[in-house]
């Protein structure tokens, strides 16, 4: 039995069909990345899986049970951080931890909060409010909040999109570490193919909406732990990367060719400096 | 340096940002910029106050002359030249009995203000003396199971202000206790919101006077068998009912328009319904609730005067009305004093609410 299964899922808002005929199977312990253009319905897909919205038709099954509501088993890192601005960093994380472990006493919970805030290296800012943090710091708080709840499955909706390259790399490694430690299941939504290849076992492109649907999957056969710098020389990496990018470019072409407008370009060619 | 930073922060928070140039001028070295700022923000407003006083002085002099001329001409027409001359001399001598009754000048108002303060001192001393005089007797009366004798002399101007503040505060608390819970409940349920909307829309614009009469009808019957003073009860309930609508509407709006992201967070964290209301919905609607409360307090203070005037309950409203009925030579200037006091207290109340509002406010985009 698959861990998470989407069967013929469609989602319509009014008359527009955002997602159409989505079929996806994720096995326990797998790391799957979904790559897509902005506006292709990625967030809708995430919300279907985490239980915030229900599919118009089709089924979302989690461990064989239909998903009807949100659950602590599925932790979500939202695209737009969604921190509560009136709470400090620590309080934001604490709120989540308290809900996830209602029976633990306060000291244990506080310790857990401190541990996860430390993980995203925000300990000096633990008593600050979100308005005093930079965008990247806020996103790290959101990561800490989701991971501190110790979910079985981590659902990430472009979690690192707003971060600078360095922080991004660190957090990618952190997420991978946590994922591999307890062999959790992870679903990453991203628009960065490199990030997908670095982190995931499989990459599935999402064709742009409306009527977005999943494309053919690409398996990443690179041994873990992966080394970011060595990756650039890895042939499998290059092949997979080129295949995915080519596929995405093709979709992009198709999408573009819908436009009937023709552009008249001037007849110029680059000047040759070679005598 | 640190001190001046906190000073600036406090003044900014309280909405006294206009004091900043002064603090800039007296803390540390004044820069050229500070001096220009000082001119702009302090000197020009002071000039505007002087201009205001000048216009007031000129206006009251013109009105005084008009009234005086009318009096003299009337005396001339009714009683002849001799009476007119007598009247003219009487007005010029400043005799109380024949002064024209019109808009008082700033200096007259200032004198009245001092008179009222003097009067307050006299009455306070009187009260104290009364208390000392009756202390022994009251002890005996209480021991015998009788009510102690209380001071029943007229209240001073300051007493009236305190009574008014008490009334407005009681009304404000009543409005808060009614409007905030109802606003939250209405805000949470779309069904309730649409079913109570007509009621809110109809009662919101009703005039304070009508509320007073309605409350009077009910309270009069309810307090039939008790001999307590119902004027205070009537006036504070009316103040509360008049002013609660802004809070009600704002609370309902704040609660119903909580950012969807926060609701999603609450759902993903699986907060219980109570937790969701108290940890997510209420904090995120606090800024709007406080905006409503600020409007409520200023409306409460504004309608209070009219309601006290009609309900015969002691306070600034009845002070104004009694002075108007009194018609003494300094009555008009006392009314103007009351007007300024009402304005200044209203301003201060608004500032207090603004401070609280700034403290609980956050920018909606901060967490997103």
Key features of this structure:
heterodimer, A: 275 residues, alpha/beta, Rossmann fold, six-stranded mixed sheet, four-stranded antiparallel sheet, 10 strands, globular, B: 368 residues, mainly alpha, MetI-like fold, 2 domains, disordered C terminus
In brief:
The complex is a heterodimer of chains A (275) and B (368). By secondary structure, chain A is α/β, with parallel strands linked by helices. Chain A has eight helices and ten strands.
Strand and helix map with partners:
The complex is a heterodimer of chains A (about 280) and B (about 375).
Chain A: E1 4-13, E2 16-26, E3 31-36, H1 42-50, E4 57-62, E5 65-66, E6 74-77, H2 89-100, H3 106-119, H4 135-148, E7 153-157, H5 165-181, E8 185-190, H6 193-199, E9 202-206, E10 218-219, H7 228-231, H8 235-257
Parallel strand pairs in A: 3-8, 3-9, 6-7, 7-8
Antiparallel strand pairs in A: 1-2, 1-4, 4-5, 9-10
Chain B: H1 2-13, H2 20-26, H3 32-79, H4 81-93, H5 106-143, H6 157-188, H7 190-203, H8 208-222, H9 230-256, H10 260-268, H11 273-311, H12 316-326, H13 331-360
Backbone structural class of chain B: mainly alpha
CATH superfamily of the domain at 4-73 and 151-257 in chain A: P-loop containing nucleotide triphosphate hydrolases
Order of helices and strands of chain B: HHHHHHHHHHHHH
In the CATH hierarchy, the third-tier topology of the domain at 4-73 and 151-257 in chain A is known as Rossmann fold
Count, helices of chain B: 13
Number of domains of chain B: 2
Q: Report strand order across the widest sheet of chain A.
A: 6-7-8-3-9-10
Looking at this structure, what is the CATH superfamily of the largest domain in chain B? MetI-like
Counting helices, strands and paired strands, the structural category of chain A is alpha/beta
Low-confidence stretches of chain B: 364-368
């Amino acid at each position: 039995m698959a861990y998470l299964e989407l069967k013929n899922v469609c989602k319509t808002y009014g008359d527009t069909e955002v997602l159409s005929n989505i079929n996806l199977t994720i096995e326990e312990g797998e790391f799957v990345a979904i790559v897509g253009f902005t506006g292709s319905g990625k967030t809708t897909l995430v919300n279907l899986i985490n239980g915030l919205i229900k599919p118009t038709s089709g089924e979302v099954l989690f461990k064989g049970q239909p998903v009807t509501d949100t659950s602590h088993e599925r932790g979500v890192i939202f695209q737009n951080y969604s921190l509560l601005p009136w709470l400090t960093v620590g309080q934001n994380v604490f709120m989540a931890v308290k809900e996830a472990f209602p029976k633990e006493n306060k000291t244990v919970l506080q310790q857990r909060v401190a541990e996860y805030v430390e993980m995203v290296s925000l300990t000096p800012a633990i008593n600050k409010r979100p308005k005093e943090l930079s965008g990247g710091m806020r996103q790290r708080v959101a990561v800490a909040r989701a991971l501190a709840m110790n979910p079985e499955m981590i659902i990430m909706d472009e979690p690192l999109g707003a971060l600078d390259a360095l922080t991004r790399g660190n957090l990618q490694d952190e997420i991978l570490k946590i994922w591999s430690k307890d062999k959790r299941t992870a679903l990453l939504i991203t628009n960065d193919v490199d990030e997908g290849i670095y982190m995931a076992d499989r990459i599935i492109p999402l064709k742009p909406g409306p009527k977005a649907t999943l494309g053919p999957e690409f398996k990443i056969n690179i041994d873990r732990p992966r080394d970011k710098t060595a990756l650039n020389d890895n042939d499998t990496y290059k092949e997979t990367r080129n295949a995915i990018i080519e596929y995405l470019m093709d979709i992009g072409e198709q999408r573009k060719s819908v436009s009937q407008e023709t552009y008249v370009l001037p007849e110029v060619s680059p000047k040759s400096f070679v005598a | 340096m640190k001190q001046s930073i906190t000073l600036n922060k406090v003044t900014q928070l309280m909405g006294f940002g206009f004091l900043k140039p002064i603090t800039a001028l007296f803390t540390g070295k004044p820069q050229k910029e500070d001096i220009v700022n000082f001119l702009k923000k302090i000197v020009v407003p002071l000039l505007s106050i002087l201009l205001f006083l000048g216009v007031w002085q000129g206006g009251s002099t013109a009105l005084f002359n008009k009234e005086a001329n009318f009096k003299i001409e009337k005396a001339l027409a009714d009683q002849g030249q001799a009476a007119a001359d007598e009247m003219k001399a009487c007005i010029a001598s400043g005799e109380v009995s024949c002064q024209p009754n019109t808009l008082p000048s700033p200096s007259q108002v200032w004198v009245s203000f001092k008179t009222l303060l003097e009067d307050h001192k006299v009455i306070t001393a009187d009260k104290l003396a009364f208390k000392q005089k009756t202390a022994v007797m009251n002890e005996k009366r209480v021991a015998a199971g009788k009510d102690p004798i209380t001071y029943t002399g007229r209240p001073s101007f300051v007493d009236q202000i305190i009574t008014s503040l008490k009334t407005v505060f009681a009304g404000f608390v009543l409005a808060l206790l009614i409007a905030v819970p109802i606003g939250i409940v209405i805000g949470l349920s779309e069904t309730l919101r649409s079913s109570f909307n007509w009621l809110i829309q109809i009662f919101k614009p009703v005039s304070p006077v009508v509320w007073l009469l309605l409350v009077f009808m009910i309270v009069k019957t309810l307090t039939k068998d008790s001999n307590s003073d119902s004027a205070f009860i009537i006036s504070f309930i009316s103040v509360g009912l008049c002013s609660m609508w802004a809070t009600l509407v704002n609370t309902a709006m704040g609660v119903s328009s909580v950012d969807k992201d926060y609701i999603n967070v609450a759902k993903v964290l699986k907060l219980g319904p109570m937790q969701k209301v108290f940890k997510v919905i209420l904090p995120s609607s606090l800024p709007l609730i406080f905006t409503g409360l600020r409007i409520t307090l200023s409306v409460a203070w504004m309608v209070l005067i009219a309601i006290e005037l009609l309900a015969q309950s002691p306070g600034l409203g009845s002070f104004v009305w009694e002075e108007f009925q009194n018609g003494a030579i300094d009555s008009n200037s006392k009314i103007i004093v009351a007007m300024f006091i009402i304005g200044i207290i209203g301003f201060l109340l608004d500032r207090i609410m603004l401070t609280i509002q700034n403290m609980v406010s956050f920018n909606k985009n901060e967490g997103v």
